Amino acid sequence: MSQLEQQIKAAIREVEDFPKKGVNFKDITTLLASPELCNQVTDYLAETYKSLDIDLIVGIESRGFLFGFSLAQKLNIPFVLARKKGKLPFQKISYSYELEYGTSIVEMHVDSIQPRNKVLIHDDLLATGGTAGAVAELVKLREGVLVGFNFLIELSFLNGRQTLEKQSNNIISLAKYF
Amino acid sequence: MSQLEQQIKAAIREVEDFPKKGVNFKDITTLLASPELCNQVTDYLAETYKSLDIDLIVGIESRGFLFGFSLAQKLNIPFVLARKKGKLPFQKISYSYELEYGTSIVEMHVDSIQPRNKVLIHDDLLATGGTAGAVAELVKLREGVLVGFNFLIELSFLNGRQTLEKQSNNIISLAKYF
């Protein structure tokens, strides 16, 4: 385990039984209280992705707006919002995907990605990969080139990685829980 | 009007009749597509607030997570999430406030602010000031010292400024619409 991964794990708070009984929630608000570590994370991500010539980063509502945007600013590239249904004001593309119970819809503005744009998708957490996979479908719909997925945290035991590998093999998470 | 304000207004897209008939929505996703301007905004905010010895920034879900966090990283201070009811996992303080129809609740983690911490509240938009005012009540509840409010956009005609002035006179918005 790298030193950065150790530091991130030490900064994350685990909250038992949230959002429901038996789930051990990984709370990043305690990481956000460590500005030096947050800057280290952003610097590390910028270093990791700078050679890939990414055109834009898509961040997933709402915790994906944090490091997604700070990384985009560091790389000096546009930042695109992927949001839940009904939040974006302009013309949209939507993708519906299945959750444990029922379905959910994720949306992006139709003009946020141009054909052949190289796109990185960022969220704070990789769980089952449902939402990130749906956002990847939106990138495809706009003929963007998916460069990879980035997450702060990966819950490996939920096998989201296997789901996302159909869309890109470049899946990087900074702190893995087994 | 300053050059920065002109640039921000030029970058913001106005969308008619969102979220309902008669409302001219200010869409910042087109601003997020201009990384140079986004970096200019963050730099300007850091310059504006650096002498105030702010201990932490509270950003309001979810667009307030964007520049709120990038400013906190620039100033090298903690970032605190103010979220809608039920989103935060740990022990919380809550404040209920009135909307046009019905009420809404905003929450913060109980350990996110310590007594006498100097706090800046940030959101992308000042409309009626209801949410930002509620967050200021949470800051007070934790005995924080409210240094001021910051917004990218202010809809002056909704008089949110008058509402917030009861809590702090330091209200800065970068682009005002009359």
Helix-strand layout with pairing:
The structure is a homodimer of 178-residue chains.
Chain A: H1 3-11, E1 13-16, E2 24-27, H2 29-32, H3 35-49, E3 56-60, H4 64-75, E4 79-84, E5 92-98, E6 103-109, E7 118-126, H5 130-141, E8 145-155, H6 160-164, E9 171-177
Parallel strand pairs in A: 3-4, 3-7, 7-8, 8-9
Antiparallel strand pairs in A: 1-2, 4-6, 5-6
Helix pairs in contact in A: 3-4
Structure notes:
The structure is a homodimer. By secondary structure, chain A is α/β, with parallel strands linked by helices. The first copy, chain A, has one domain: Rossmann fold (3-Layer(aba) Sandwich), CATH 3.40.50. Helices cover about 30% and strands about 35% of the residues of chain A. A seven-stranded mixed β-sheet of chain A has the order 5-6-4-3-7-8-9, with helices on both faces. A two-stranded antiparallel sheet of chain A has the order 1-2. In chain A, strand 1 and strand 2 form a beta hairpin. In chain A, helix 3 packs across helix 4. The model of chain A has no long low-confidence stretch (mean pLDDT about 95).
